[in-house]
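Exercise: predict the fold of this chain.
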Amino acid sequence: MPSDNSFDIVCKTDPEELRNAVQATQKELGIRFDFKGSKASLELEPKTSIVTLVADDEFKLGQLRDMFEGRLIKRGLSPKTVKYSVPQPGGKMTVSQTAKFQSGIETEDAKKVVKVIKEQKLKVQVAIQGEQLRVTGKSKDDLQDAMAAVRAANLDFECQFVNFR
């Protein structure tokens, strides 16, 4: 009797790569001419994976955010895993913003993924297991089709596929 094949859909951020991206952005911030003499900074809270961006004004904050996202992409992290807060005025005439990294798939997002897979009418079952999804099926081809459908859906959050068996 053939056993079922499966894979998991997760959303997680590698803390080491995140730390490296923050350090690379801090280094670039120190050498960029347009940031000389400004109060711009970038700090990572390692326990919570929250990055705080501080700049002189909203324009520089946007530049800092773009610089940071460029470093994330170079480190293999998707900017889709980042949720930014609304910019807040800070002390000493600055503007600050926090970037929170998604860890796990929320229930509403999981339902979107299930819907995308169900619309393909593949012979697979999708189960929501806490903050991840398990997709099982007899055929590995069906599982690969399910992966392709999720990738093509262009969801507003990052999906990684792990434990393909």
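Check your answer against the key: The CA atoms of residues 69 and 93 lie 24 Å apart.
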